[in-house]
Amino acid sequence: MPRAGEEHLGDHRAPPSGHVACFGELLLRLSAPGRELLLQSGRLDVHVGGAEANVAIGLARLGHRTAMIGRVPDNPLGEAAAGFLRRHGVDASRVATAPGRMGLYFLSTGAGLRASAITYDREGSSFALAGPDDFDWTALLEGADRLHLSGITPALGPRSAAVAEAAAEAAAARAIPLSFDGNYRANLWERWDGDPPSILRRLVEKADILFGNHRDVALLLGRSLEGEGEARRRAAAEAAFAAFPKLELIASTARHLVDADTHRLSGRIDTRDGAVQTEEVTIPGIVDRIGAGDAFAAGVLHGLRLGRGIDWAARAGLALACLKHSLPGDASLFGTGEVDAFMAGQLDVRR
Q1: Thinking of the domain 19-225+232-248, which architecture would CATH place it in?
Q2: What is the pTM of this model?
Q3: Which residues on adjacent β-strands are paired with residue 46?
């Protein structure tokens, strides 16, 4: 039986006619094969990545119209990245080609008690070289009913920070709702003398949805938050709602690490009126955890865009995040059938 106020899992509603525009940098991820250290054997596996692109792909695979906005070099690397988006249903016509190089990052996947490690190589990329005047927001946001940004773009440098603010301002001027994922990346911010709290606050001020936890809120507000567990998460949400009048919803996950192969994950959504939190799910035999937060964001937005309740949206986000741990690469490639099966507890072979 469905929960009170919920529909049966298979009763899918039609997505909105508009599309979600995702703005950010497309990257190539170069991974050490298996659980090797970087360049241990001199081989690398290649995946297309990028936080905002992962959300666009995740939503597209769930039946929503999405479009990616960005810039890539006019070479086979840029074309391969844009082609990956197109293959998974994302409109890549707003991904322009421009001077510069392809942004890269390198991953060595952890094992046992050894943590995974990421090395960025993004300076001088086509996207990082862009400035606010390089984007025609009237054309790029045409037909969009939501813009999705993350804190990774402003972390790239002053030009990218200005571009992110211009994107948020353009959406606000057109009454297009903004969802923002904190995605704080200390290694990127430390490469220049930016002011993360101030810059991120100006972006969150324009958002109605924030993906972030108590640590993100503490960074935004410049103060620590008291309490533990659910109490601290609610206190953080209430502090964020008080600071940002436009904010309507905060979605977050809580992750507990047993070792590199086994994590426990739960999802949560806070509104001004209250909160829902999922059960904690144990994820054994992790294949790839990169992009799980983006999958969670896609799952939550999926539920909200279908008009489901916040309880269903939180569980859909958790389902997609858990499923992403089973798949190599950055993006979630699962459809509604896999999400429904996970939420229904169907773990056996589906024939």
Answers
A1: 3-Layer(aba) Sandwich (3.40)
A2: 0.93
A3: 30
